[in-house]
Design brief:
The complex is a heterodimer. In chain A, strand 21, helix 15 (406-416) and strand 22 form a beta-alpha-beta unit. Chain A has helices spanning 46-59, 62-67, 102-106, 110-120, 129-140, 152-161, 168-171, 186-191, 213-219, 233-240, 271-274, 298-307, 311-326, 367-386, 406-416, 428-438, 456-478; strands at 4-9, 13-19, 25-32, 35-37, 42-44, 70-75, 81-83, 148-150, 165-167, 177-178, 183-184, 201-203, 209-210, 226-232, 247-252, 256-262, 277-280, 287-293, 337-339, 356-361, 395-399, 420-422, 450-452. Helices cover 37% and strands 21% of the residues of chain A. The longest helix of chain A is centred in the last third of the chain and has 23 residues, at 456-478. In chain A, helix 10 (233-240) packs across helix 16. Chain A is an alpha+beta fold. Chain A folds into 2 domains: 4-238, 2-Layer Sandwich (Nucleotidyltransferase, domain 5); 298-422 and 449-478, 2-Layer Sandwich (Nucleotidyltransferase, domain 5), CATH 3.30.420. Chain A is built from 17 helices and 23 strands. The longest helix of chain B is centred in the last third of the chain and has 25 residues, at 358-382. In chain B, 57% of the residues are buried. In chain B, strands 1, 2, 3, 5, 11, 12 and 13 form a 7-stranded mixed beta sheet that branches. A 7-stranded mixed beta sheet of chain B has the order 16-17-15-14-20-21-22, sandwiched between helices. Chain B has a two-stranded antiparallel sheet with strand order 4-7. In chain B, strand 1 (3-9) and strand 2 form a beta hairpin. Chain B has helices at 43-55, 96-106, 108-115, 124-134, 136-141, 148-156, 173-176, 191-198, 236-243, 296-306, 310-317, 358-382, 400-409, 422-436, 456-468; strands at 3-9, 13-20, 26-33, 39-40, 62-69, 74-77, 87-88, 144-147, 170-172, 206-208, 213-216, 229-231, 234-235, 250-255, 259-263, 277-280, 286-292, 328-330, 346-351, 389-393, 414-417, 446-448. Chain B is globular. By secondary structure, chain B is an alpha/beta fold. The chains are: A alpha+beta, B alpha/beta. The A-B interface holds A 295, 298, 302-303, 305-308, 336, 342-343, 355-363, 365-367, 370, 479-480 and B 297, 300-301, 304-308, 326, 333-334, 345-353, 356-358, 361, 468-469.
Chain lengths: 481, 479
């Protein structure tokens, strides 16, 4: 592989890595994703983001920095902003969960919504880029001046190369891409009054551009480095995990993703109501079928903060709960039922206004009970979303922070009745980015996966509990936001 | 200096206070814990009373004593005066099925018409039906049914196991009114209701008037001299109302183990919506009352989850804005009596990544608890009882957060009486009346809380959460 600097711009943190030619991680750093607020919502602090990237590269030992042949950038989908040819901004760089363009979608009728889903493979939602594009174009007016919509990862690549382009998996999250033709949809863009010229040329992740001399000099890199937009973080993770058709990738982080690769896009009748998201993979060779659960690891961060637990205390709590679970010591009737919709609901509701509910609190309820309830709620939610997909996975691969959480993993395996293959390497997305920038396939074995079997005895207890609480669970899910 | 003693045999503890007859000044006191369970052998209450007397330094210098106690909770006695079996407390949920049965058999409205009580699982009549159902042998051996204060009063007078003397059992109007076999309209027992519930009649305590004397203390009781006057006694809320000199237009919000809102009325009420219980007071009038099972214990749970103490909970709550940014708690941790949800549990609503903070959770615990009490205040008003002033009492009344948040939720002047054991004080006033034939006028110091703008969103959120869980039919506010 090519020695590669990877940049993964997540919801809460930016992960920066330097990988050697043998795929080994040589250096890494992580910092909070820099954001700020404008009059409408939350946007990226681009000055700080650029400084963080340049600072990381400059901080690499010269011997490592000199090795670098590739820069591969991944990011959350659905974020973006309007960027002019001279790379100045015609709009703020908007975060994925910002809904400032939502009213552009409110006017769409059922037929128009169905058409959008049929063409783009996405349920109509203000998370996706198109409504933000329409908002940004209108706000910019004449100042658009040739600006094009770039995702945050694409913008960073443009800063480094002076070129603007869009990668297929990120383009798939704009709700403006015709999946079958692999081109921007005139019809869909027209529904929101946007011309396709506002979107840049399309490339697969393997097609990079040479770094600009100015950026290379500033960062201390050689000028033969190729810059790649590796793609949407979950999709890049699929490359890192060497995901095959029939396998499910469970990527965990601030949000939790479920991803299948398919030969054909999933655009059957009825698919619209499931609100699963179809797209094109980073390699351009597969179609993706994806669902995002908005509240993933962030649920535990909130819980930790609310209960006043340090990271070490939460970790100890998880260890105790895991041991208790394995020993059959959980008193199931005392565990609160947690619907962890702390940032909206997953498909098929996909309601950004949905909020979390905890029921079953008694005078004996402890902080540990609530932590366990939260994990159980997470796996129930995962089960529900998985049930929306048209097929059961032959294998389930887990990447991200959950791979270091034995309780979460065991509960998931036992509830699903399915063993898990769990990455032992923490930065699978970055490994996938290196592979894509090197034009090579991913390597799951290189992620040192561990097989987690189903605990047959505990699975019976867990599924009995899940069956007992299901009516209450369904009721809680059905309550309008 | 003449001294009198007031006893408060509450759910959790027994408190004995010794006061000066002339001024009501507290001279000394003693406390002893009751078992934490909801089914208890009555001997535990008698033993706790004796321990509390001992911890109060004994009562050798006291001239009169009177007992107030937890309402409703029955003591089953055999013909010789022995305790037949353990007693289910008023807050024991085991009698829910019996409550359902009794309401079905006679009709919910009939109980309200006859007794002024929307029958709940707390009322004595459901407990006697419970005994008949679950332990028929114990029911067969039962020759008398008294409530806790009746039985303790009787014990103080020298009666007990083996003495017989069931016909010497006494009670007062307030305790009789919590049995659901007494009529506030006639002032008499409804013996047919007792017989319907239990299958036969047994000896019931004689109902004394407000200024009557129950008798004198018997010999040989450790720490209590023989021959001193024993006052009529009362239920706990009636005793507190007496001590607070409750007048028409006053309402009391008591945040203790249970949450209680009551006021004073010259006539009994009949609330066919099923929320207000028409009890009698200790002065000869009436005490319309609404109660929840969950109140101050909510704060204990909230503080426990947050890993802080009461003061920390209060401090955190004051850091959050009204409405806790939408985070809403329905605090039915032990099921609930008002509304009638015995199998419900607590629930937290509208949690998001941004509002799920320690401060908001602390505030949601207090707002949720108080919102339940505000609903009860509305219920009292709906019965035509006017309320012009609210007094806040109970263990949680001293919390700054409780005081501040309450003023944001209620459109009434709110006052907080100075720290005192008002139930025990009311009992001591009854002891005093047993000596003098009239109630003493003992001063109460009030702190008046500043009026602030109402924060309607708190009650709105609470109501919406109840609608979401199907506890309330619509989101529209009560008329």
């Amino acid at each position: 592989m090519q020695p590669t600097i990877t940049i993964d711009i997540g919801t809460t943190s930016v992960k920066l890595c330097m990988f050697g030619a043998d795929g080994l991680l040589l250096s890494s750093a992580r910092q909070d994703t820099p954001t700020t607020a404008d009059a409408w919502g939350e946007v990226y602090d681009l000055t700080s983001l650029r400084a963080a990237v340049v600072g990381f590269i400059q901080s690499l030992p010269p011997a490592q920095r000199g090795l670098a042949k590739r820069i591969a950038i991944t990011g959350v989908g659905e974020s973006g902003g309007l960027v002019r040819p001279d790379l100045t901004l015609a709009s703020p760089m908007i975060l994925w969960h910002d809904h400032r363009g939502a009213d552009r979608l409110a006017a769409l009728g059922p037929a128009e919504r169905s058409e959008i889903t049929r063409i783009t493979g996405l349920p109509v939602n203000a998370n996706y880029g198109l409504s933000k594009v329409a908002w940004a174009v209108e706000e910019a007016g004449a100042a658009v001046d040739g600006a094009q919509w770039l995702n945050i990862a694409e913008y960073l690549a443009a800063l480094m190369t002076g070129k603007r382009w869009s990668e297929f998996s990120l383009a798939s999250r704009t709700m403006a891409l015709d999946l079958r033709s692999g081109s921007w949809s005139v019809a869909v863009c027209g529904l929101l009054g946007v011309g396709t010229e506002v979107f840049p040329e399309l490339r697969s992740a393997g097609e990079g551009s040479r770094i600009g001399r100015g950026f290379a000099e500033e960062a201390g890199l050689l000028d033969d480095v190729q810059v790649h937009v590796a793609g949407h973080d979950h999709m890049v993770g699929a490359v890192g995990a060497e995901l095959g058709r029939g396998e499910l990738l469970n990527s965990t982080g601030t949000t939790e993703g479920l991803l299948f690769l398919r030969e054909e896009p999933y655009l059957e009748d009825g698919a619209e109501h499931l609100k699963l998201a179809s797209g094109i993979s980073c390699t351009g060779e597969d179609f993706t079928l994806f669902a995002s659960i908005p509240t993933g690891g962030s649920a535990f961060a909130s819980l930790q903060s609310m209960l006043g637990l340090s990271a070490a205390q939460l970790s100890a709590c998880i260890t105790v709960l895991h041991e208790r679970y394995l020993a059959g010591g959980v008193r199931w009737d005392e565990i609160p039922l947690v619907l962890p919709q702390f940032r909206g609901s997953p498909p098929p509701g996909k309601d950004a206004k949905a909020r979390g509910v905890i029921t079953g609190l008694g005078t004996g309820t402890s902080a540990e009970d609530i932590v366990l309830g939260c994990f159980l709620g997470m796996v129930l939610q995962f089960r529900d979303v998985l049930e929306l997909f048209p097929s059961r996975p032959e294998r389930l691969k887990v990447i991200g922070p959950a791979s270091r959480n034995p309780l979460w993993l065991q509960l998931k395996a036992d509830l699903l009745g399915m063993p898990l293959s769990v990455s032992g390497f923490p930065e699978v997305v970055s490994r996938g980015a290196q592979a894509l920038a090197s034009g090579l396939p991913g390597d799951w074995d290189g992620c040192e996966p561990v097989d987690l079997p189903v605990n047959a005895i505990r699975a019976v207890d867990l599924n009995q509990w899940a069956a007992e609480v299901r009516p209450r669970w369904e009721y809680m899910k059905g309550v309008p936001a | 200096m003449t001294l009198v003693a007031g006893v408060d045999s509450s759910t959790q503890t027994c408190k004995v206070t010794v006061r000066e007859l002339e001024t009501g000044a507290l001279i000394r006191e003693g406390k002893a814990s009751h078992p934490p369970t909801t089914i208890v052998h009555p001997d535990a209450w008698w033993d706790a009373l004796l321990r509390a007397v001992q911890r109060a330094g004994g009562l050798d210098d006291v001239s009169a004593i009177s007992v107030s106690g937890q309402q409703h909770t029955p003591v089953f006695l055999d013909a010789q005066g022995g305790v037949v079996c353990d007693s289910p407390l008023w807050n024991d949920l085991g009698s829910h099925a019996q409550m359902v049965d009794l309401n079905r058999e006679l009709g919910r409205d009939e109980w309200i018409r006859r007794t002024g009580l929307p029958l709940t699982l707390s009322d004595t009549v459901t407990k006697i039906r419970w005994l008949r159902d679950v332990d028929p042998d114990a029911a067969r051996r039962t020759a008398a049914v008294a409530v806790v204060h009746d039985w303790l009063t009787w014990r103080l007078r020298g009666f007990g196991p083996g003495t017989g003397g069931l016909d010497q059992l006494t009670t007062d109007r307030s305790e009789a009114s919590g049995t659901a076999y007494w009529s506030g309209d006639t002032g008499e027992y409804c013996l047919d209701l007792f017989e319907h519930a239990f299958g036969r009649l047994v000896e019931l305590p004689r109902i004394l008037g407000p200024l009557d004397q129950a008798g004198v203390t018997g010999p040989g009781i450790p720490g209590i001299p023989a021959g001193i006057a024993v006052g009529v006694g009362s239920g706990d809320n009636a005793a507190a109302a007496l001590a607070l000199e409750l007048t028409a237009g006053d309402a009391v919000l008591s945040l203790g183990t249970s949450g209680v809102v009551y006021t004073r009325s010259a006539t009994p009420v009949h609330d066919y919506t099923g929320e207000v219980c028409s009890y009698a007071d200790a002065t000869g009038e009436h005490l319309p009352l609404v109660a929840t099972l969950n109140a101050a214990r909510n704060f204990e749970l909230g503080a426990g989850l947050l890993g802080c103490d009461y003061a920390g909970l209060s401090e955190l709550a004051l850091q959050a804005p009204p409405g806790a940014e939408g985070l809403t708690l329905l605090p039915y941790f032990e099921g609930e009596r008002t509304p009638d949800l015995p199998h419900a549990r607590g629930s937290l609503h509208e949690a998001s990544l941004t509002n799920f903070t320690r401060a908001n959770f602390a505030r949601a615990v207090i707002e949720g608890t108080l919102a339940g009490q505000m609903v009860m205040l509305d219920a009292l008003r709906a019965c035509g009882v006017s309320v012009g002033r609210l007094m806040l009492i109970g263990g949680a009344a001293q919390s700054v957060a409780v005081q501040q948040i309450l003023t944001q939720m209620v459109d009434l002047p709110v006052s907080v009486p100075g720290l005192d054991e008002y139930v025990a004080k009311g009992a001591a006033m009854q002891a005093a009346s047993a000596l003098s034939g009239t109630f003493p006028r003992w001063p109460v110091e009030f702190t008046f809380l500043p009026r602030v703008p109402l924060e309607g969103r708190i009650s709105d959120q609470h109501r919406a959460a109840k609608v979401r869980l199907g506890y309330e039919a619509t989101a529209s506010p009560p008329a």
